[in-house]
Amino acid sequence: MSILGIVHTIIAVIALLFAVAALVKEGIINPFSSSGKIYSILTAIACVTSFGLSKAGGFNPGHGIGILILILLGVAYLSGRNASRKRSLLLIQVFCMTLTLFLSMIPAVNETLSRLPVGHPLADGPTSPIVQDAIKVLLVLLLIGLVLQFFKVKKLVK
């Protein structure tokens, strides 16, 4: 791994830890809470640093995911300004923040399974069955998480 790759990975892993902390503490990733702010900032930095990484050279699907995550973070912040007064805006915020976490996990799973264990990785890329199966599991977790969070929002805003 390059120095940029190592820095990117460290930042991205720390961001994911803050997302988990936010979900455990609040039940949602609120971009205006302390853990949500740190998650958002680190995720944005991870996205920007990912633009300098490419195994194949040039623009790749990971870069597209990074751009989408940055857009979703922006939408979450814009909708969140008035989210405490409108349930629909809070739902948009929750959806966007949760989707950023899901999208961050796609390259994380692919890179982890394509690199570990060292010398005999479990996958050889994003089309490997184990990567595809892991992403399917993440999708199910995304859907379950969104349903649970929407119930949480229903309790928060009446």
Describe the structure.
Helix content is 75%, strand content 0%. It is mostly helical and 158 residues long. The chain has one domain (3-156). Helix 1 (3-26) runs antiparallel to helix 2 (34-50) and helix 4 (87-115) runs antiparallel to helix 5 (129-156). The longest helix has 29 residues, at 87-115. It is globular and about 55 Å long. The model has no long low-confidence stretch (mean pLDDT 91).
Summarize, please.
The chain is mainly α.
Keywords, separated by commas or semicolons:
single chain; 158 residues; mainly alpha
Domains counted in the coordinates: how many? Answer: 1
Question: What is the 3D form?
Answer: globular
Query: Would you tell me the structural class of the helices and strands?
Result: mainly alpha
Give the N-to-C terminal Cα separation.
Answer: 49 Å
Q: Using only CA atoms, what is the Rg?
A: 16 Å
Q: List segments where confidence is low: pLDDT < 50 over at least 5 consecutive residues.
A: none
Relative helix content: over 70%
Topology order in helix (H) and strand (E) letters: HHHHH
* Main pleated sheet: none
- Tell me how many strands there are: 0
Number of helices in the DSSP assignment:
5
Average residue pLDDT: 91
The proportion of strand residues reads under 5%
Topology:
Layout: H1 3-26, H2 34-50, H3 61-80, H4 87-115, H5 129-156
Helix pairs in contact: 1-2, 2-3, 3-4, 4-5
